[in-house]
Write a structure and sequence with these properties.
36% of the residues lie in helices and 11% in strands. It has 17 helices and 16 strands. Strands 5-8-9-10-11-12-13-14 form an eight-stranded parallel beta barrel. Strands 1-3-2-4 form a four-stranded mixed beta sheet, covered by helices on one side. The chain has a two-stranded antiparallel ribbon with strand order 6-7. Strand 2 and strand 3 form a beta hairpin. Bound molecules: alpha-D-glucopyranuronic acid (GCU). Alpha-D-glucopyranuronic acid binds next to loops.
C-alpha cells in the first residue's frame, strides 16, 4: 500500500475533509456539526437543516439556486445532509423525497478476532487483532460516517463462520462490543453479530437443542444481558448447518425451529434473527449426478415457508450458487411469500477479481433488483469489501461498490450510470471531464469484460480452488462442493431443465418456460441451464465453441483497452500507483484466463478458432 494513511483518504467524502470531534451523541448532533463545518468551508452554497419528524428515516431536499434545504429528523436528517453534499458536488439540483426502500440495510463483515478477514482483500480487520477488540476510535467514527453517508444502518462485525474466541462476543467481550456500538450509534448504525448455533455448549451446556427449554432459557438470559449493555442491538446473523457450521439438524430439528427459538429470545427487545439460506451438501460425490447444488436451498426452505417467526429474516444470496460471475437470481425469491427475506450481495470480490481486477457492481445490482419480484424482500445485506488498508477497499475503485450498494439499499434500484457519476464526482472532483468520462466508461464496462475473460456463458466455478483468484477449469471438477462443468469432448454444461436435474422447475412458470427453452434462454446463462455440444448455435449466430473463443479474446482485448485508457488519466497521487499496479496484475490475469480457457476447450473439442487466432494446443 502507498504511504498515505486512512486519514488522508476520505473516499467519496472529499467535500468534508475533517475528522469528527467533540461530543456528538446523536445523528442530529453529527448532522449539525458536519453542516456547520461544511458551511464555513463552502460559503457560496448553503445547506440548511430543518428538524421535521414527519419523514421517519427519510428526508427531503429542496433547492433554490445553489442552496439546499434538508427536512428530516434523526438519522434521516444526517442522510439528507450527506445527500445534499453529494448532489451539490456534481451540480445536481434534484428535488428529493427519499424514503428507505428497506428498513434493514446491512453490511456483513467476515472479520475474525485474530484480525484476518475471510475473503477480505483490503487488509486486516479494522477492529479485531490478537483475539480482541483493537481499533482506532477515530477510524471507527469515520467508518460510521461513511456508512451513514450511504444510509447503511446495521453493521454485523464478525465472520458468519464464527471462530474462536468470537463465540465469546456475548460474554467476555460484551463490554467491548457495547463500547464499539457506542461509537457507531451517533451515525445511526446499529451493531449485529454472527453467532454460533452451538454457543450454549461453548459455555458449558450439554446441548444446543432448540426445543430444549433449558437452551431456550439460556438464550433468553443472554438476550436480556445483551440489551442491557446495548439497547439498540440489531440482532443475530446465523450460518447454521452449512459448510460444517453447527445447527439445529444435529438435534433432529429443522431450521424454522432453530431460528424461531433464537427469535423468541430477541423479540421482546426488538431484535431480529437473520438466518442465512446458504445451505447445501458440501460433501458431494462428483460421481453422483442426482444431486444438483443450486437446487439445495429451495428444496430445504420452500416447504418451510410460513413457519418462520415474525422477527426472522431469511437471507438469500443473489444467485443459487455462491456469488459467481453470472447466475440467475435464486428461485427462493419467488418461493417464500410468507417469510421475510433479505437479499445478500457480495461486495468483497471473492469471485470477481479480489479487488485487483476492476469489477464495478452497479450493473449487477440493477439487474438483480429488477429481476427480483417487487416486495419479495424487506431487507438487504452486502458482504463488506472494507479493511484496514489506508484506502479502505484495496482497489480505490472498489469503493464504488459500497457506495452504489448503500444507495440501492436505501433508494431501491439505481441507474448504473447515474450512481457511478455521483460516486465519481464526489471521489474524483478534480479530474478533468475527459478523464472522468474515460473512468466512467471503464467502470461500466468492467463487469462485462471480466465475465468475458473468465467463466463463459453462466458456467461458473472455473477458478483456482480455495483462493478463487485466477483460472483453473478443472479445479473444482472432482471435488466435494457440487461445482461441476462436466466438460468432455462432446460438450459442456449441466442439463438443469425438467429433463435434467429439474432445477428450472423451482421457478414460476414464466421463467421455467424461458430457461427450459433453448430458443428463449439468454446466451449469458445458457450453460447454467443446458448442456450443449460445441457446435450448438447461439443467438448471435456463433457456435458455442466459437463464442467461447470470441468472449475470451474479446475479454483480454477489453482489458488491454482499459489499461491503455487508464494510462492516460491523471489520477490523484494517492491513487495513481495503486491503479496502475493493479491494472498490470489484471492484464496478466486476463491473459491467463483467456489462454487457459481457450486451450481447455480446444483440447476437448478439437475445433480451431474460425479467425485463426493463437490458441495454444
Ligand atoms: C463462500 C466463501 C466462504 C463463505 C461462504 C458463506 O463459500 O467461499 O468463505 O464462508 O461463502 O457465504 O458462508
Amino acid at each position: 500500500m502507498s504511504k498515505n494513511t486512512w486519514r488522508d483518504y476520505p473516499l467519496w467524502l472529499k467535500a468534508l475533509p475533517w475528522e469528527l470531534t467533540g461530543d456528538l451523541r446523536t445523528p442530529e448532533d453529527v448532522a449539525e456539526y458536519e453542516c456547520s463545518r461544511y458551511m464555513s468551508m463552502h460559503p457560496s452554497s448553503a445547506i440548511t437543516l430543518i428538524h421535521d419528524d414527519t419523514h421517519g428515516e427519510g428526508y427531503t431536499l429542496h433547492w433554490e439556486e445553489r442552496n439546499c434545504t434538508v427536512h428530516g429528523s434523526g438519522a434521516g436528517l444526517l442522510y439528507g445532509f450527506y445527500d445534499a453534499v453529494f448532489h451539490a458536488r456534481v451540480n445536481s439540483r434534484e428535488e428529493v423525497d427519499a424514503k428507505p426502500r428497506y428498513a434493514l440495510r446491512m453490511i456483513n463483515c467476515w472479520d475474525n478476532m485474530d484480525g484476518s478477514i475471510e475473503r477480505g482483500y483490503a487488509g486486516r480487520s479494522m477492529w479485531f487483532e490478537g483475539s480482541r477488540f483493537v481499533y482506532d476510535p477515530d477510524r471507527i467514527r469515520q467508518l460510521g460516517r461513511l456508512l451513514a453517508s450511504v444510509h447503511i444502518n446495521v453493521l454485523c462485525i464478525n465472520n458468519v463462520n464464527v471462530q474462536d474466541p468470537a463465540g465469546h462476543l456475548l460474554d467476555t467481550f460484551l463490554p467491548d462490543l457495547a463500547g464499539f456500538a457506542d461509537i457507531l450509534r451517533p451515525f445511526g448504525v446499529r451493531v449485529m453479530i454472527s453467532i454460533d448455533f452451538a454457543m450454549p455448549i461453548l459455555e458449558g451446556m450439554t446441548t444446543a437443542d432448540p426445543l430444549d427449554p433449558a437452551v431456550e432459557a439460556w438464550w433468553g438470559v443472554k438476550a436480556d444481558k445483551i440489551y442491557e449493555a446495548i439497547p439498540d442491538f440489531a440482532g443475530f446473523l446465523v450460518k447454521a448447518d452449512s459448510e460444517h457450521r453447527p445447527g439445529p439438524n444435529a438435534y433432529g430439528r429443522n431450521h424454522a425451529e432453530g431460528a424461531n427459538m433464537l427469535a423468541k429470545a430477541l423479540a421482546p427487545h426488538g431484535g431480529v434473527v437473520v438466518w442465512r439460506a446458504f445451505v447445501y451438501n458440501c460433501k458431494q460425490d462428483w460421481r453422483d449426478q442426482s444431486v444438483d447444488r443450486p437446487k439445495a436451498a429451495y428444496d430445504l426452505y420452500h416447504p418451510m415457508d410460513g413457519q418462520f417467526a415474525e422477527n426472522v429474516i431469511l437471507q438469500i444470496k443473489n444467485g443459487p450458487f455462491d456469488f459467481q460471475v453470472r447466475e440467475p437470481v435464486s428461485p427462493l425469491f419467488y418461493g417464500m411469500p410468507h417469510t421475510r427475506l433479505a437479499l445478500e450481495f457480495q461486495l468483497t470480490q471473492e469471485y470477481t477479481g479480489h479487488q485487483v481486477d476492476i469489477y464495478a457492481m452497479p450493473p449487477l445490482f440493477e439487474e438483480v433488483m429488477q429481476a427480483i419480484p417487487e416486495n419479495a424482500i424487506s431487507a438487504i445485506a452486502g458482504v463488506s469489501n472494507l479493511g484496514r488498508d489506508s484506502n479502505w477497499t484495496g482497489h480505490p475503485f472498489a469503493a464504488l461498490n459500497l457506495f452504489a450498494y448503500g444507495r440501492t439499499a436505501f433508494h431501491g434500484t439505481q441507474d448504473s450510470k447515474a450512481v457511478t457519476d455521483l460516486w465519481l464526482g464526489n471521489t474524483y472532483p478534480d479530474l478533468s471531464s475527459r478523464d472522468r468520462k474515460i473512468l466512467h466508461s471503464v467502470l461500466l464496462h468492467s463487469r462485462i469484460a471480466y465475465e468475458r475473460y473468465t467463466a463463459p456463458l453462466g458456467l461458473c466455478w472455473m477458478v483456482n480452488p480455495h483462493g478463487h483468484y485466477g483460472c483453473s477449469p478443472y479445479g473444482y471438477e472432482f471435488d466435494v462442493w457440487g461445482t461441476y462443468n462436466r466438460a468432455d469432448r462432446f460438450g459442456v454444461g449441466i442439463d438443469r431443465t425438467s429433463s435434467g436435474t429439474g432445477y428450472t422447475l423451482q421457478y414460476p412458470e414464466h421463467l421455467q418456460y424461458v430457461y427450459e427453452n433453448r430458443d428463449l434462454c439468454p446466451d449469458n446463462l445458457v450453460l447454467f441451464f443446458h448442456r450443449l455440444p460445441y457446435d450448438a448455435v447461439l443467438h448471435d449466430g456463433n457456435t458455442l465453441i466459437q463464442r467461447i473463443y470470441e468472449d475470451h479474446f474479446q475479454g483480454l482485448a477489453d482489458v488491454e483497452e482499459m489499461k491503455r485508457l487508464l494510462d492516460t488519466v491523471q489520477f490523484p497521487e494517492e491513487d495513481a500507483e495503486e491503479v496502475h499496479q493493479r491494472m498490470e496484475m489484471q492484464l496478466h490475469n486476463a491473459r491467463e484466463w483467456c489462454d487457459i480457457i481457450n486451450t481447455f476447450f480446444y483440447r476437448f473439442s478439437g475445433i480451431p478458432d474460425q479467425k485463426g487466432r493463437v490458441i495454444y494446443p
